Amino acid sequence: MLKLKLEALGHPTPNDVVLSNRKEFASTVLWLEDQKIRLYTIEDRAMLRNLDDMKVWEEGYKKYCADLNMPSLETQIEQLTWMLGHAIRLEFLDDPGQYEAFNSEEWGKQDNKKKLTPAPKIQAIFDGKINVQDKDFISGVRALANKLNVPHHPNHLLQLEAVARIVHERLSPAAKNRKPITGTPFPFEKGNDIVSVNDPALDYPMRILRLLQIQSLRELQTQINETIVSVQDLTANPKTDTKLGKVGF
Amino acid sequence: MVVRPYNDELKYLEKISDHCWRIKKGFQPNMNVEGCFYVNSRLEQLMLEELKNACRPGAVGGFLPGVKQIANVAALPGIVGRSIGLPDIHSGYGFAIGNMAAFDMDDPLSVVSPGGVGFDINCGVRLLRTNLYEKDVQPVKEQLTQSLFDHIPVGVGSKGIIPMNARDLEEALEMGMDWSLREGYVWAEDKEHCEEYGRMLSADPAKVSSRAKKRGLPQLGTLGAGNHYAEIQVVDEIFDKWSSSKMGIEEKGQVVVMIHSGSRGFGHQVATDALVEMEKAMKRDKIETNDRQLACARIHSVEGQNYLKAMAAAANFAWVNRSSMTFLTRQAFAKMFNTTPDDLDMHVIYDVSHNIAKVENHIVDGKERQLLVHRKGSTRAFPPHHPLIPVDYQLTGQPVLVGGTMGTCSYVLTGTEQGMQETFGSTCHGAGRALSRAKSRRNIDYKQVLGKLEEMGISIRVASPKLVMEEAPESYKDVTDVVDTCHAAGISKKCIKLRPIAVIKG
Q1: Does B362 belong to an annotated binding site?
Q2: Which of B154, B192, B493 sits opposite A247 (nearest CB)?
Q3: For chain B, which has fewer Cβ within 10 Å, the N-terminal or C-terminal residue?
Q4: What residues make up the domain containing A136?
Q5: In which domain of life is the source organism classified (chain A) (predicted)?
């Protein structure tokens, strides 16, 4: 995914960005600021430019993050992902007209399929009671998300939905009393189902999505089984009568 | 049938890969598509020998050789893709057993053929697991076998011990396994682990003759005769550790129960009735086939629809039948071990159909099409993530239960993506006959067969010992050959090997 974003921004060597290397990371950040984000004037970029003395660079980077209003993200990858997203957004806003044809409606027409954009569920819940676009509300959601380590999303309502799920699945009393899952864990990237051998960027998220889908299907099936069992309580009356039995020749 | 010298016949056959042969058009008249069959070197010999024998001058009578039957099916109207022979193929009525063929639902000329389903509609295999191990069962093996034999009536003309009246039967035909659920004979989880969820919604008992119902009524919950059996088996080898653990099979030595049965006299009568009706329809609609046994009717004709609805009722009958036997097996085990079936973890691993025609969506030439898939002596084997397989097997692919012959081993396979593309998600169903029933009766002595099983330490209870030689392992192809061919060709994947320790037979 990072590679795709770098490619979209026209990075000269998107394949060679090694994220484990701090220096490499620093130069990628510098490239982003120089070419795309341009938050500072050229003179102000001096500290970021100082790749030879990483101490100075780190200091400059810290300030840069704050000036960019980057949410507090822990890992290098998260920070870079956020910056890339930010850069792409700026690039887009330079000339939105250019991308007008690239929207789901237009693509939907090409597929000859109608696609509905689902409104975030949360909006309906709060409708009329709380102004969900209120500044305080937004900052509250962001703070809550930070606390629970929910990744940043530009739409705070979607983020709130993710928060709700985590609370429901991990922190609710029912979840806390749940027995831990026993059995041998299986590395999910080793299943019989191959999505794409050459493209881990496609393979990995596909597997995760499929697992989530299977999980919700399992929940549905369990509910169905529970319903059947509750009906069985009323109707079941198995009988056998050995007198009827006859073994053939 | 075109009679040519054997060497001329061979010109129409071409080996396209290590495990697959192509049957070119012209092998039989009017072929709409090509045929193909999957074999390894040993099965290949059997296949070609059969053809060679049929080419001898003066060879008449009996069924046509399997290859010819595949080609005749390829000449039926509306067939798409290829007419496919699985490794366990052997001659049968019209269609060879182990032949699958798909017909385009959108083509008004497409046909449905009872010969493509077989007389024992929805004959199939169900596998129950337990949490017992061989060491728990060995000391009480004889008693347990006897107890199973006492619970499950077997043999020609046997009658079941679950009380049923005519109204119950009507409901069971319509509801399939839902009837067994409602009456409390099975668990909710059983339905989940059954092909088609144990119920064909298209069933219409009104399309079934009263003769069929009369034959079927007393037979519910009975095993039947022929190749049907119930076996107590132990896990002999695990090839795919992860998939097997998804099925609740953790280690070698674990005990499972395999039930192989169908729709008994009921299905047979439904098929017979349909054949009579269809002969008339063929004349009316001027449908020409290469073989009189390939009686068929257009899918959307009254006769075609009547058959499909009656067939679905027979399929439901078979599921109720296997469900009733599941109930009886659980009772027998619970009594033997003084506990409950729940505590023995006697869940259904899966339930497959061997003889059935179903409407399925497949990709043909890059486009999704709705097909009527005939599987006769062939098992559905859908790949991982197919929407029609249970959620528990979404990652492994559908379990495929392959019953061996009496006293040999059985296998559990899983479906693959390659099988979906090459064979419409179908694979083998068992060993497949090598000798005809009559020939087996002439050549093999039943005492020898029983003695041999005893030597192998397999307890056996049979209702009619004199028919046992028909089912002797010598009469069949080697199931391991069959399964290995499917595995090597990639149309399904080996998962578990099972070995019997007790057999109950008709």
Answers
A1: no
A2: B154
A3: N
A4: 130-181
A5: Eukaryota
DSSP 3-state assignment of A170?
A: helix
What digits encode the pLDDT tens for the residues B67-87? 999 999 999 999 999 999 999
Is B163 in contact with A210 (Cβ distance < 8 A)?
Answer: no
Helices (H), chain A: 2-9, 22-32, 46-49, 54-68, 76-94, 104-111, 121-126, 135-147, 156-166, 173-177, 200-235
B19 is catalytic: no
Give the structural domain span for B135. Answer: 123-505
Nearest chain A residue (CA) to B186:
A238
Q: How far is A225 from chain B (nearest CA, A)?
A: 5
Per-residue pLDDT at A74 exceeds 90: no
Residue A181 sits at the chain B interface (C-beta within 8 Å): no
Phi-psi region of B195 (alpha: psi -120 to 50; beta: other; left: phi over 0): beta
B249: in domain:
yes
User: Min CA distance, A249 vs chain B (Å)?
Assistant: 5
Same domain, A85 and A167: no
Does the beta-carbon distance from A232 to B184 stay under 8 Å? yes
The answer to whether the Cβ–Cβ distance between A218 and B161 falls below 8 Å is no
- Residue A49: inside a domain, yes or no? yes
The answer to the question of residue B216 being in a domain is yes
Does residue A102 sit within a domain?
A: no
Q: How many domains does chain A have?
A: 3
How far apart CA B15 and CA B24 sit, in angstroms, is 11
- Is A136 contained in some domain? yes
pTM of the model: 0.83
% of chain B exceeding 90 in pLDDT: 80
Q: Is A103 part of any domain?
A: no
Residue contact A240–B243, C-beta within 8 A: no
**A92 and A10 both lie in a single domain:** yes
Q: Are B358 and B163 in contact (CB under 8 A)?
A: no
Residue among B232, B269, B259 nearest B321 (CA): B259
For residues A176 and A209, membership in a common domain is answered with no
CA distances from B132 to B391, B401, B461 (A): 25, 20, 22
Task: Establish whether B456 is an annotated binding residue.
Answer: no
Domain containing B376 — which CATH number?
3.90.1860.10
Closest CA to B299 of B117, B109, B116: B109
Q: Which tops the pLDDT comparison, A225 or A3? A: A225
Of B155, B183, B384, which has the smallest distance from its Cβ to A248's Cβ? B155
Residue B12: inside a domain: no
Burial label for B78, CB within 10 Å (0-12, 13-18, 19+), is: buried
The Cα B358–Cα B336 span in angstroms is 39
* Same-domain pairing of A168 and A82: no
Residue B289 assigned as binding residue:
no
Residue B188 included in any domain: yes
pLDDT lower than 70: segments of chain B: 1-2, 58-62
Supply the ipTM of this predicted assembly.
Answer: 0.88
